[in-house]
Amino acid sequence: MHNPVKRLDQLTEFLMHVERDGVTNPLAKLDFLYSCILADIPDEIIPTTWRILAHVIFAREIDRYDSEFLYGSAQGLCNLIGVDQSMFYSALRNLYSVVAVPSRRNALTTPLRFYHASFPDFLVDAKRSGKFVIRRDEALVDIINSLFHWHEIDATHFHSQDEPMSFRMHLNHTALPGLKWISDLSGADALGLANSISEFVTEGCRKGCKVLGPNPDLLPCMSQLGMRYFSISIYSWSVFLNDCYEKDLLGKLCRTKPSNEFDVLLLDHLKAMATEHESVRPASFPLTWHATNGSKFREFVLMGHDNKPVVLWYTEHDA
């Protein structure tokens, strides 16, 4: 018990509430117990605790298949989030009564597991958990940002400028740099864990953005990505950008006018690709790509910043 005085105040307040109003909510006592457990986590540690629990609760919503390694390996979960061994156990030290935490020796092949479904149910219900709530959208933003982080690691270390827009699978290659907890793993296990992360990232970035939709907390991070290797179709981009337009969030992600020398170079290259009588013009919103009108043109938007912009274009040919 880190703060006995605080715990006594909480208990006194709860008992006064019971005496005054009665406990009409059958979950009130359980909620109080869970709140007390979480209240004992130090303030500087609880953000990491929140992230770990958020990933466990919501990662499957992004990609049920490729996220499955997180539900079989606590060590895999740590590496995806970017949490080292010491921080992982510090973040969960106060939760052993409600969460099954594997030992260091078994963490690669054993998941983090809730003892009872009532605990995650409590965490996602703001009326019950109060300041400890794990809201869906906030959790998804954090998970997708984890995927974005590894997307950039992959794009930086395992792609050349001449490759198409697709992910390099890590099979038969070195493990991802920056993994936080692999010191006790064999080379094969470290590579297998890196492959699992890479496979989740491959589709997870796209699926996560689709599941969450345009979100003002996510778009600034998304705009910093090297989108050349972002696995998403032109149709999906057009739907997503139109959603951004409807929510007045378009400026956080893309533009139709060049903002630096790299944008200018991209547009010069696009114009050089245009055939005779084919106009190149900025896109207008909402996008009507795939709505054939018989004209011949290329519409474009620019995405990404600094030295990592991409040009996204749609070509309409004569009917």
Helix content: 40-55%
Strand and helix order: HHHHHEEHHHHHHEHEEE
- Structural class, by secondary structure, is alpha+beta
**In DSSP terms, counting alpha (H) and pi (I) runs of 4 or more, how many helices?**
12
- Assembly context of the chains: single chain
Structure write-up:
With 319 residues, the chain is α+β, with helices and mostly antiparallel strands. Helix content is 48%, strand content 8%. The chain has helices at 4-21, 28-39, 46-62, 74-81, 85-92, 118-123, 126-129, 136-157, 187-212, 219-223, 234-246, 261-273, and strands spanning 99-100, 113-114, 254-255, 279-282, 297-303, 310-316. The strands form two sheets. Strands 3, 4, 5 and 6 form a four-stranded mixed β-sheet that branches. It has a two-stranded antiparallel ribbon with strand order 1-2. Helix 3 (46-62) packs across helix 5, helix 3 (46-62) crosses helix 8 and helix 8 packs across helix 9. The protein is elongated, with a radius of gyration of 24 Å. 32% of the residues are buried. Mean pLDDT is 85; it is low at 164-172.
Which key phrases capture this entry?
single chain; alpha+beta; two-stranded antiparallel sheet; 6 strands; elongated; 319 residues
Summarize the SSE layout with pairings.
Blueprint: H1 4-21, H2 28-39, H3 46-62, H4 74-81, H5 85-92, E1 99-100, E2 113-114, H6 118-123, H7 126-129, H8 136-157, H9 187-212, H10 219-223, H11 234-246, E3 254-255, H12 261-273, E4 279-282, E5 297-303, E6 310-316
Parallel strand pairs: 4-5
Antiparallel strand pairs: 1-2, 3-5, 5-6
Helix pairs in contact: 3-5, 3-8, 8-9
